[in-house]
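Appendix B. Chain record.
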Amino acid sequence: MPLETQRVKVFKSGPQRLREHTQALLGPDPQGRLARIMVSMPSETATDAQLVQNLVEAGMDVMRINCAHDGPAEWAAMVDNLRRAEQTLGWSCRVAMDLAGPRLRTGTLRASGRVQRLAPQRDCFGRLARPGRVWLTPAEAVAPTPADLRLRLQISGGLFGRIAVGDALDFIDARGQAHCLQVREARGASWVAEIEQTAYVEEATSVTARRGGESVGTGAFINVPEIILPIALAVGDPLVLTRVDAPGQGAERAADGTIVTPAQVHCTLAAAFECARPGHAVWFDDGKIGGVVAANDGERITVTITRTGPKGAKLRAEKGVMAECAMLNKGPKIVETVRFLADIIDRMDEHYSKQRATLRRLAVADLEDLKGGN
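Structure tokens predicted for this chain:
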């Protein structure tokens, strides 16, 4: 039974790791050689023939050259070093030239607001195990958060000059619930406080310092971090990919759950809007979320979600997109890459889908059309 190809990325210290990896993963074949290992070439393999020979001896039998890096002279040198290693060892090794397509990604997402969650630690029965510890620092002279603390709030309004250990800082959180931070320790111009109940602090929340039940000053929590929620998707939901680079957002729904405005997110590759057609497959986040193009008006591609996890999916900002309509494109290196691989490109008439065993024709532009960098 043939072994599946395993792709390994190694550097100068890699041959021994490769040998150990392949022995553990595949074991030796009946002839005693390790087989079906693809290794991505670092730039050093263009000048270090011994490294290439060591890799072949360790078990590499597919040399992967990433054409997004180096250039034709380096690629040729890598192959020359490989051929010499083959002659020395009496073994064969194939060469895979990786001419990747464009990198499509989702754009940014719109912030839902500014809120900081403060929470204590609780045991498995929900009982308080340890209060939440919060770094309180003046907004006018922010001090770095100490390594032993995770939560931070900035306070404006000159309140810090009046705070003392033992004071209670009272505030109303985003849910309208009253909460109290107890000041426990002074560190320079900042303080360490503790909280025993979970609170959600919004931007500009008013805070009052009390000592012995009497107010000693007021201020506000500011520069609270933004909260960016992922786009929630379920099978059957529409997702609109926009050409305009604007922050994306989740769907707006009516009280009964029906979608009023579909979720949308920017697609970073403008060329996708020129070639996407209804029925084309689209995959997001390394294939975790699947969909099919339903419509494309040149500015907005509507995708119907067809695959998620059993509980739906969450699409975050700047995640990879794999689209059936993507053109072959490597920017400034495309001309020299296609010229170097001309005899291979002539035979590239099929293109594989990462997620399914569906093969489709791959259109390759004429080399003369590429000389201008198009």
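Further analysis of this model is presented in Appendix C.
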